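Supplementary Methods. Inverse-folding protocol.

Structures were first reduced to a discrete structure-token string of length 149. This string, shown here, constituted the complete conditioning input.
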């Protein structure tokens, strides 16, 4: 009886697992995957926010972000060595939006546009201080992201 039941259950398990293979995976949208890779980031803080005195200071930040499909993740450090996590989304036209967090708290939001090898945009922190950023795609970066699951 056990053998007969096992032969009945085995095909059900095998058919359920069949959908998990890479062969049956839906191909990624080529319009989105053209941005896939690791991008080097440089950010700059404006000296003041609009309508205010010079109270934002001046700072720079560097880091890397990774794009896979429509998802953006990354880590940045400012010139005071504070670390920020970055996450966001990008659409097929290269338009990206997202947020920076510091120790789990919202710190800033960003927006911008990417081309095939570079992009620019702006950001604003929670106090209203504005900044700008630029990114450049690394040569070996696309290969390391493409090999990830």
């Amino acid at each position: 009886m056990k053998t007969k039941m096992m032969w009945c259950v085995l095909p059900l398990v095998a058919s359920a697992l069949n959908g998990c293979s890479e062969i049956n995976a839906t191909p990624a949208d080529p319009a989105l995957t053209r941005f896939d890779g690791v991008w080097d980031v440089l950010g700059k803080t404006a000296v003041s926010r609009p309508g205010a005195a010079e109270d934002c200071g001046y700072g720079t930040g560097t880091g890397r972000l990774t794009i896979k499909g429509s998802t953006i993740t990354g880590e940045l450090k400012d010139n005071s060595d504070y670390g920020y996590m970055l996450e966001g989304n990008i659409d097929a036209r290269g338009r990206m939006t997202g947020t920076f967090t510091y120790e789990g708290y919202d710190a800033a939001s960003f927006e911008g546009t990417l081309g095939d090898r570079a992009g620019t945009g702006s950001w604003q922190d929670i106090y209203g201080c504005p900044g700008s950023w630029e990114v450049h795609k690394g040569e070996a970066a696309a290969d390391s992201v493409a090999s990830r699951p």
